[in-house]
Amino acid sequence: MDRPTTPSRPPLRSVLLRSRKHTVLGVDPQHLIRWFFGGNASIAVIVLVLIMIFLLREGIDFLPTYRHELQTYRRAGLEFCDIIDQPLQQNQTLSSSLRQAISASLETLSKSARDRRDAAFLLKRQIEDKTTRTSESLSQALEKTPPLPPAELAKLRSEVQKAAAAASASLTYPDLFSAAEREQLQREFAALTPEVTDLPPLLQTLAADFTAKDREARTKFASLVQAQEEFEAATEPLQAVVDELKQHAQETKENAVEFEVLETNRLRLLEAAAKEKDPDEKASLIKEASASFTEAVNLAERIQAITSRATELREQVEKYAQVIEKAAAVLPTDAGTGVARTMVNDVREGIPVHAQAMRKAAAQLDSWRWDKPVSIFTVIGAFFFGTSWITNSSWQDFFGFVPLLSGSLVIAFIAILIATPVSVVAAIYTNQFASEREKELIKPVIEFIQAIPSVVLGFIGISLVGNLIKDVSEWSWLQWVPGFPIQERLNMFNAGCLLAFMAVPTMFSLSEDALNNVPRAYIDASDALGATKLQTVFRVIVPAGISGILSAILLGLGRVIGETMVVLLVAGNRIAIPDFSAGPGAIFQPAHTLTGIIAQELGEVSRGSSHWQALFMVGIVLFAISLLVNWCARAVARRFEPHKA
Amino acid sequence: MSADSAAKAKPPPVVQVRDMDFCYGTSKALFDINLEVKYHRVTALIGPSGCGKSTLLRCINRMNDRVPSARVTKGEVLVKGKNIHDTDVDLTQLRKQVGMVFQKSNPFPKSIYENVAYGLRIHGEKNKNLLDEAVERSLRHAALWDELKDRLSANALALSGGQQQRLCIARAIATLPDVLLMDEPCSALDPISTLKIEELMSQLAREYTIVIVTHNMQQAVRISDFTAFLHLGKLVEFSPTEELFTNPREKLTEAYLRGTFS
Ligand SMILES: Nc1ncnc2c1ncn2[C@@H]1O[C@H](COP(=O)(O)OP(=O)(O)OP(=O)(O)O)[C@@H](O)[C@H]1O
Ligand SMILES: [Mg+2]
Q1: Mean pLDDT, to the nearest integer, of A626-641?
Q2: Does A490 share its domain with A634?
Q3: What's the pLDDT score for residue A17?
Q4: Which of A166, A627, B153, B234 is the most exposed place for a label (fewest CB within 10 A)?
Q5: Among candidates B95, B99, B122 on the partner chain, residue whose Cβ is nearest the Cβ of A539
Q6: C-alpha angle B36/B37/B42, rounded to 5°?
Q7: Is any atom of ligand 1 closer than 6 Å to the C-beta of B55?
Q8: Of ligand 1's atoms, which has the minimum distance to the CA of residue B64?
Q9: Is residue B1 part of a domain?
């Protein structure tokens, strides 16, 4: 050892350094670092727990609040009225399809006359548009006092005539008109000036033609028209009684609610008074409280006015049912075109069902009790299985969850159905077949999709995809597709397409990872047995990566269910359960979603109201669904994970 | 059997490697290799690490094709008299003829049955009876049938390491290959499993031609009929095992066997 001997006293510098290294504010830095990392991890957990607590605190009061509202709904007799009123709505649906059938039938006779009339009027409008400038200056000149010299007026007139002649010559006249008619039209249009108020003669004839045809058609289908009118009129006496009762019930409800508000206010004042020390203040508080005292609504007495009419209601319902059944019997079987015929047939079948439903409803009236308490299970059922979400209603708010859930689920289902094949196939291609250069292109491009703000996608959905789907749905050779041609541009399918697009990056990347993680040794073994590339991919690699692919799909589903902006903009926001009786074409109907409803309504409701609480309930359920989906994804990944070799 | 009697008369070499050079890109890994693998015999490849044993083994079933820019630059490889680099050679058929077992057991994450049946399935066999028969025969040959016949549908990854390796052998022989290539098949196994596989190999040698890479001299002595010693990509000596181990012709071989090798 030929090291120089070290000085016995260590240099000051190293002492300082060492002491700095070992303790910071008297704590071992190792511990600090551990705490720092542990703290960061636990922040995530704490925030998650806080979110849950917050959601629950805001939402959990919903059930008692809603229960109270439903109780008022029952005690005030609104429920009683709805027993009859609800099924009665069906009348409107039926009569509107009858009305459609009628106009379709009339159409067969009067269409050509109407088309000719409409075309002629359209041409006239075009002429007027083209000659606006000159004719306006003429009409202004005519109104002038004192009147202009006749020479100047003549000049203006001739200008108008010239413009009209030029315009009428430049028009293209449709084939609806014969050569002679076209000539006559052109002549008449050329003579149009603001001074002539009468319609050109040919236009008058065309209008008269249509009126005659229409009248003829109406007489021809008189029985149908009459049946429709009778059917619609049949509700009137029944509706009158129901409306009267509804008004009474509503009054009761309003009074009851008002009483409640005043009463809580009064109790609060009294409470404050009890706490108040100053005798003057106390006295004034008590005085104020007694001023706001109101008589409680005597529900039992008021409901009497409604329930006592039950017999009358039942009779009216029976009468109504008989009338509409008679109307159904006289509905003609051969009403105009094919479309009209099927419509009329549907109505003919629908009416007895409707009548039956009305009778059943009437039978329920007797067993209805105003003072039957609303159990908490009823309330839970009304939320989770309620089929209508009605808010800000003057009659009664309902917070039924099913329309929103079904919208969310259908959209998510469409999105996953589209995104799964696309992303999985793309992942397989990129992972197994693509060259390095292709990989370098495909991966960043797909991952970039994630960076597109969802609001921008919403724009695209509204302006581009919607129109595209609508146009495509009108192609004649695609009419076999259920739901085509579509009515609404903004619908569940549109939203589903965009969400699929949004879910692709997640699903693609995770699937690609899953394929990447398939051990090289499996591929070696398969190759050594003489498998082709395709066989190796589909018999070894994909099955070995299936757990990862499945959990990728589930995580994509989680992303899709939670997405808000796109569905809010594109799904059409109609709060109704999609009409699945229309078959798979139902996906082209608009709908609302769990996320969309929160985003749309939360900003507008007053804090703490039942509506606010209901939205939080929706949030809780959404949260639960997301947790469940994520948990499933993890479980799937674990379940199918091959045993570690 | 005529094939057997012909084999006894004068067994033709199953694999012939002639004057072969092999390159990974620009670096040469094998130099001028000449090797004949005899019918129904076990041929061992020994040599220090990195000398090119695996490369040579992989030349026989063209597994090196998957390494970009790796290729035979001179000479040829014949399997049953056919040059395997001829354009009319179907790679899948070649690999059906030349089975391979890897150093680390690699059964698929499928059932035992599916693992063994895989080779037949990818070559288009759909007949359930034939598959059943082939699975049973292969497992019997791999001395696994009695252990596993009641749990054929169990996941292969649940087996022990030794069982997994024997399953891989069963999978490789299910397609009835002419040659079985084994790249250090026992190096990841415990002594007992190793013993079992060695026993298995001497039985298999009655029906298959085997080429095995091993680092274990005793193993080579125990199981092989011929041994090839490679060094730095060159075939130093190739002779019957007994001769090579008792009376090596080359100094290099002797040094390697003694372990006085630098
Ligand atoms: N894929 C490859 N690309 C480039 N060079 C390679 C590749 N595989 C092997 N080599 C080289 O070829 C030479 C022979 O390798 P090989 O794997 O055949 O050796 P080995 O004898 O099997 O060794 P070991 O006993 O360690 O398995 C080595 O120098 C190695 O670096
Ligand atoms: Mg090797």
Answers
A1: 84
A2: yes
A3: 59
A4: B153
A5: B122
A6: 145
A7: yes
A8: 1
A9: no
Inside any domain, residue B193: yes
d(CA B14, CA B37): 6
A447 and A382 part of one domain: no
Pocket lining: B33 vs ligand 1, CB cutoff 6 Å: no
CA distance A560 to A569: 15
Q: What share of chain A is helix, strand, coil (3-state, %, to 5)?
A: 75, 0, 20
Residue-level pLDDT at A15: 57
DSSP string, A519-541: -HHHHHHHHHTT--HHHHIIIII
N residues, chain B: 262
* A458 and A554 part of one domain: yes
Structurally, chain B folds into a number of domains equal to: 1
B58 CB neighbours in chain A (<8 A) are none
Helix (H, G, I), strand (E, B) or coil at A263: helix
Report yes or no on A593 lying in a domain: yes
* Domain carrying residue A185: 91-219
Taking residue A308's Cβ as centre, other Cβ atoms within 10 Å add up to: 9
Query: What pLDDT does A6 receive?
Result: 52
Q: How many domains does chain A have?
A: 3
Residue with tokens 């029976």: A318
- Say whether B66 and A540 touch across the interface (CB within 8 A): no
pLDDT band at A335 (very low <50, low <70, confident <90, very high): low
Q: What's the pLDDT at A31?
A: 85
Assign residue B99 the CATH number of its domain. Answer: 3.40.50.300
**E strands, chain B, in order:** 15-24, 27-37, 42-46, 70-79, 82-83, 98-101, 179-183, 209-213, 226-231, 234-240
Q: Does B111 touch chain A (CB under 8 A)?
A: no
pLDDT in tens, A68-109: 989 888 888 888 888 888 888 888 888 888 888 888 877 777
Backbone angles phi, psi at A151, to 5 degrees: -65, -45
Residue B244, domain member (yes or no): yes
On whether the CB atoms of residues B225 and B41 are closer than 8 A, the answer is: yes
User: Which ipTM value was assigned to this complex?
Assistant: 0.90
Residue A211 has pLDDT above 60, yes or no: yes
- The SS3 of residue A591 is strand
Beta-carbon separation of B168 and A530 below 8 A: no
Which chain A residues are closer than 8 Å to B171 by Cβ? 525, 529
Give me the total of CB pairs closer than 8 Å, taking one residue from chain A and one from chain B.
74
Q: Does B119 sit within 8 Å of A642, measured CB to CB?
A: no
Q: Are B180 and B209 in contact (CB under 8 A)?
A: yes
Which of residues A331, A364, A395 is at a domain's end? A395
Note whether B175 contacts A642, CB cutoff 8 Å: no
Examine residue A624 and state whether it is found in any structural domain, yes or no: yes
Instruction: Kindly state whether residues A488 and A384 are assigned to the same domain.
Output: no
State both tokens at B91: 């790679």
Contact yes or no for B91 and A530 at CB 8 A: yes
pLDDT band of B3, cuts 50, 70, 90: very low
Whether residues A263 and A377 fall in one domain: yes
Q: pTM above 0.90? A: no
Query: B53, B66, B217, B231: which to mutate for ligand 1, most atoms within 8 A of CB?
Result: B53
Structural domain range at position B81: 12-258
Q: For the segment B151-192, what is each residue's pLDDT rounded down to a tens digit? A: 999 999 889 888 999 999 999 999 999 999 999 988 888 888
Q: From chain B, pick out residues whose CB is under 8 angstroms from the CB of A643.
A: 109, 155, 157-158
Residue A595 shares a structural domain with residue A455: yes
Does the pLDDT at position B140 exceed 60? yes
Nearest to B43 by CA among B57, B32, B55, B30: B57
* Chain A residues with beta carbon closer than 8 angstroms to that of B118: 526, 529, 539
Q: Is the same domain home to A281 and A385? A: yes
Give the whole-angstrom CA distance, residue A489 versus residue A616: 30
The answer to whether the bond into A485 is cis (omega within 30° of 0) is yes
Distance CA B40, CA B225 (A): 10
Query: Do A479 and A616 fall into the same domain?
Result: yes
